[in-house]
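User: Structure please.
Assistant: Input sequence and predicted structure:
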Amino acid sequence: MPNTTTAAAKIFQRLKGLQAQMQPGEEPILALPAIWDGGQSSHSTACDVIVTNQRVIGYYYRGFPRERIFMDALNLADLRTVTWREKNYEPVFREILVSDGHRNVYIRTPRQKSEFLYEALRLATTPGTQSATTPATETTAEADAPATEQIQDTAEQTGPVYNREQVRRSFEKSSLAVVLLLVGGVLIEIISLLLLFTLHSASISGPLFVAGFVAVAASFLARQQAK
């Protein structure tokens, strides 16, 4: 595979159809499973997050039962902030907020993978790494440009602001509470159905089923409010 590193070749081999989505000169650096929330739908998407030398991408390909491709991306050059967020009551997942000033994308991964993703984004947007691939002719042209353009180029090359923050929220708005509500509601509904089939008494199983349904519905409402 010409002009492609071994790591990029492995990513292309693992993620079917990804190479066809690449822009000219684009090459993947890192790919890992994550949950992508780009704010364009009512739910998050389980996919692979790919950091390339040009973009950060949420992507998956599914061939069954019908072919389907999910593709969402932000240009690295447009990024303004990258925030590593740790929320209380979330022992497993960490969240990275990536923003270009117009859109906010939330990427949730386990702690170790989020550290890899955070550092990969930092390296991919470091001005020094980009300048290493810039042709000498372009450098000469920039040296002859007006002073105002030089100031603008310097501002653009500073890259996004990286920071870490602790997000404190009440337990009832945490993802752990949402999971407990959902699992508890489903278990109550299963128990109510078992009672119905064994005791044949709707007066006993009915209230339990309603309580389980309310718990499941409350979990979805809490999930929407937790965003």
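Residues 6-125+160-168 form a domain with the PH-domain like fold (CATH 2.30.29.30).
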